[in-house]
């Protein structure tokens, strides 16, 4: 099937007001909020332009030099999505750093469900990931990627964890942050209360866990909890949950937290 | 047990010849060879100073300000290991970038076994990871970390893959690169020949794999093979192996390659 030509809007200046949202991306990174988020790169845009993306895109911004190669992908964009093109020189002027992937977009966060609303919306059988104190963007991105890969129904993050819609987390998630419903608020105690009230079995992952992962049969509603590398989950969390370990070879410390979540999801999702 | 005071050598100049190996680390990064490698950060040093480290350290270089906090760790160092200390200003002058972890070391590669020597040295029951075309340092580091966590006996990498002793790969491996025997040479065909001749069952991991991972029982000698994200393993590799998939939820592309290796190792190592 021949691709329709994408509707491109060529820019002549980095100060064009139609791309105000792309200015000072580093500031946006630091804030990570503000109703918008940045997506970048072809793999993420692939997800962002698919029906699996839960968010609305506001616009795209691409390097002129990539327009031809990206035409098939851009043909999937909604008819009313503005797609701006500019020379690499203008792109550099707009964003303050070299966009080596030549492909950016702005998404709108829209109405974000509270953790309570998200948990209330889950089906009778549900697998939830709970991330506590995960301040590293790569790890949050990796958790979102794995949650998407294994079809987790939701990810809950405490407020100490970083935002899955932070630019780098989205990139590392290869779009998983756009796919899996999540809420980020409160602390371990409030999130645990919520899940217990909704009938979830809580699994706390730790090298010191009492049950080996392979011996765990997932309950109809299961929440798997992971904490930051190093400190791990707090004692207050561990006592409220069934503690589970992923056995490792003697003497080596521990798995990366996103990898541990991936292994747990692999076992529990049973696809 | 009280810790003996570490033997510190205070430096007064970034040009001190005793720390020549630390100069121009960025060049070393690019080359990645030369008989030496750089380790950095407390977690990696912990492994580097443990009996699990297969390599000899040549020296350490730490920020004066961290000497007290690191004393218990440094007490594990061999008596003849020079431990240099310097002000942050001098450190910055030595290495050309700010060492925010305040802790560097130089290791010696020593005699490196060929792939054939490494495979010949393996026990009767052995689990090997084979990484083909993995050019990303984070992914090679992640594979080395997971190989260490699950007690893989060796990692074979083709020459297209990056060096596990590259600075960033060591850091991401949290020392796994120092622990698991590896060889990096040749291409897929030569490495496959070697493993087949030594009686290994070859498992080729791919989303298109015919057997689900959970249905695989590890043979006494098993080699699990992973390729670069995106292209994956070549057809030439796939036809020579049993192809294995890690089932994923509909529509989501794929796992990170190091995570996939971690899940495969979790299942096959059966700890």
TrEMBL record, chains A, B:
One Gene Ontology molecular-function label: methyltransferase activity
Name of the protein in question: TrmH family RNA methyltransferase
One GO biological process term: methylation
Domain of life: Bacteria
Domain tRNA/rRNA methyltransferase SpoU type: 127-266
Keyword terms of this UniProt record: Methyltransferase, Transferase
